[in-house]
Every structure is written in structure tokens, then in C-alpha cells.
């Protein structure tokens, strides 16, 4: 019996180590979506026939490591590490201009570690007690997104213009979605995200191409950046995330984990954006607002994923969340090894889910966290001196083409470009910022249904 | 002088040479696309037994490799056009704050409500003086 347990622990440890090591590397590569990387890798393990605990720890450690390391391209280069990092591009760009990319990185990754750890007991506890209310959240998700879109619109630079643009924007997004369905049979998500994220780039490019507006973007000399001093408050190799974050940042990270658990059926990106907007609305001081929102958003990328995997897995054994339908799908359904009638839910106990999830979080954190923390500033200096903006945008353009085509072939590329031009112009010239655009996108099906009574 | 001849622009918050950027955008798109399609063709032709999901996943890795290669080529050809200051006072952060359209007077008032641990952090990052200093500037301006 004891030997069995030890054998199982060894497999669990091995799975976590493998997931963490591979996805520390993958996390560094900008644009690698979770579903496209973690799901196939987990599927491979399922088909190889490794024990259930190893499949589980591999997937969990991969998620945690990827979302810790995606902060590096996001904070230092301004290129989204993956889908969930897209909403953090804007605040990271502000912090880079203030000379604080390394501080953004340290705060984000510390909040990520904390969020991952505390979301394990919260998610498991929620799975046991409150899961039946998940359906209620699902029914009201559209209304919640709409209310938040209006609130975020009012606080955006465009104020009333932003609110006035919500309905036209939802029409436009739904129109593009219909176009994708007509062309490929499926709707688009990544194309819309990329379009919104790249909007400002499209607006600047169009301005540069037009003789009328070129003077707005033309400059005489290179931009000067300042890099703040390092903020190394720890000694040795392993920092303590609790000491890196302020009291308020720790508290909001805790609230974000609870919020993620309650809304486990909703979109992980949507929840990350809502968390960021709520934090922003609660804090007045500019520096504290931006650094806290970006930290808590990164913790939400961890806690939403943990909640969206653990709650459906422990409570139902059915993929009832967007993450369970995506990156974690092989844990629920990978026939003939995993089926809705016989998957990890039936193979592992609740106690096993709890301890092995904690093990996976611990292993991923031990590998990824100190590495990023100790080298944040030297890495920032290297990037600023050696990686030109042209190279960053080249990579971003390539990723946009690749990911858009991956999702919806040629129609995907067209949709991303249309989305980018439309959202970029609205953002740049009317203050209809990225936060309102994302919220409007999530609210679009509900708004169209309520206002015009069609899907 | 040479930089001026390069036709510098601010695109997405950073300086670029327009010609280099256009070449880079084209290269990134083309190389990424060819790598993805080439990867998918290779996997479907030589590893036909692979699951469809795995083929797509691995194909994406080929595509991303193409994007990274394009980025590396452009990084080699086109040098970073930034002036990096590490010394305090090396850059006019006031103008950076202005570009964010911050109400500097209000901002300095908000500082009074910021918790002490964040204030200490701002001091260490040399940011506190910037925000608090603006209060002094605006008061002087008002006088």
C-alpha cells in the first residue's frame, strides 16, 4: 500500500516537473496559446498511458508555469505571452514608459504565484459546496458583461462616446463572427483578441501611410527610456512573493481567486479583464492603480484557470467551463482513454486533486518564479538595448497571421485586420479603449439578443 | 543625422524606421505563414497517423518558429532605436506623465491616500518625487 502511494507520488512529481520545465520554455515564446500548446501535450501523455495523477500534475504545472513566464514577453517586450496576457499589454506599456518593466514583471509573477496557491483550496472548496450555482452565473454572464462594459466605458477616456459606441461595436463583432461561421463553420475568438490588442498598431500604421496624418507619428529622434533602479528586497535565490506585494495587492489577489471560483463557467479572459477594471476603479493614485491592476490581473490568469479546471473536474467530471473545453479538455475527454463516463473525475479522489494540484503549483513556482525574479532587470536592459521595435512588431505581425490562420484560415486573417483597424481607430481617436472593447465583445451575444432579438 | 534620414516614426509607443518596419511586417507575415503551412504539410505527409489535434498543435509550433526566425532576422538587420537612461533624472518623466493625460495636481493629492508600503516602494523607484514634485510645480504655476 505504502509502495503504491510512493509510486503514485513519484509519478505526480515527475508529471509536474515535466510540465513545468517544458512550459517555462514555451511560456517565453510570445503568442503560444494555452489551448494550442497545453492541450496537445496533455493529450500526448494521456495516449502514452501515464498514470492519471501524472497527467493531472503535468497539465496543472504547465498552466501555472506558462502563466508565470508569459509575464516576460508581456512586461518586457509588450508582446502578449498568450491569450490571457492580451489584456495586460496596455498597462504593461504604461509601466515600460515609466521605466518599470522589471517591476511590472516582479509584481505580476509574485501575484501569479500567490493566486495559484490560494486558488487551489478555494476552487476545491467551491467545487464541494457551491458548484450548483455555476449555472446561475452562466445565465447572467451576458448581463454582467454588459453592465461592466457600460461602467468601464464611462471611466474610459471616451466617456459618453465609449458608451454610445458599445452597441455599434457589438454589431460589428457579431458581424465578423457570422463571417467566420459562414467561411469555416466555427466562430472566432483569437482573431478578435488579436485585432483588439493590435488596434493601436493598425491606427499608427494607417496614420503613417497617410500624408494628412503622418505628422502625428513622425519624430526627429529616437525615444528616450528610463529604467528605474532594481527593487531587490530579498536575499538569496528564492524571493518570498508575500514580501514583494503590498497589502492591498495581496488582498485583491485573494478576492480575485474567490471571484474566479464563483464565475468558473465564464470566460477566463473576460474575468481577467473584469478583475483589472474593478481594481482600477478602486484605486486613485496612478502608479498604485496601474501596478496593482496588472499584478492582480496576472494572478487572475492563474486563478481563473485553476478554478475553471478544478471545479468542473472535481464536482462534475464534465467540461463545463471555457478552459475545460480548451486547454484542459484531455483531462475530461480523450477517447478511448478518457470519456465523459470515465475520466480523471472518476479516477482520482477529491483529496488527491487537492494535494496533487498543490504539488503542481509548488513545482512550477519553484522552477519559474526565482528565475524570472532574479533576472528581471538585466533582462529588461538587454531587451531595450538589443531588440528593436521593428523586430518586436515583425514577430507580432507573424504571430497574428499564424494564429489567425490557425483559427479560421484566410477569413481569420481578414477578420483580424478588420477588427484591428476598426478597434484601433475607435481607441486612438475616440477613447473607446481596449477594456471597453473586450467587455463589449463578451457582452455582444447578449446585447444583440436583448436589443434586436436575434443571435 | 543618419537617424533622420531613416524616417523615424513613433509606432505603438516606440521609435521605428518606417522602411525597416514595413519590410519586417511583410517578412513576419510571410515567413510565419509559410512555416505554418509547411509544417502542416510535413506532418500530414510524413506523420499521417498523428491525431488531428496533435498535427494542428505541432503545426502551430512550426508557424511560431517562423515568426521567431523573422523577428531574429529583423533584430539583426535593424538596431534598437532607443536611448536607454539608467541614471536618475536622465529622462523628462514629466512629459511621459503628460502623455498619459494625468491631472498632475489631483495625482499629487491622491498620494496622500496611498498606503505607506507603496509610498516606500515609490521612493525606492524614484517615483514619489516625480508625483509629489508635480504638486509643487503646479502650486508654483498657480501662484
TrEMBL record, chain A:
Keywords recorded for this protein, A-Z: Membrane, Transmembrane, Transmembrane helix
Keyword Nucleus in annotation: no
InterPro entries on file: DUF112_TM (IPR002823)
Source organism, top-level taxon: Bacteria
Domain DUF112: 15-429
Bilayer-crossing regions: 6-30, 42-65, 109-133, 139-156, 187-209, 252-275, 309-332, 353-372, 413-432, 438-454
Protein name according to UniProt: Tripartite tricarboxylate transporter TctA family protein
Source species: Pelosinus propionicus DSM 13327
UniProtKB/TrEMBL annotation, chain B:
Species the sequence originates in: Pelosinus propionicus DSM 13327
Name recorded for this polypeptide: Uncharacterized protein
Record keywords: Membrane, Transmembrane, Transmembrane helix
Record-annotated membrane-spanning stretches: 21-43, 55-75
Superkingdom, natural source: Bacteria
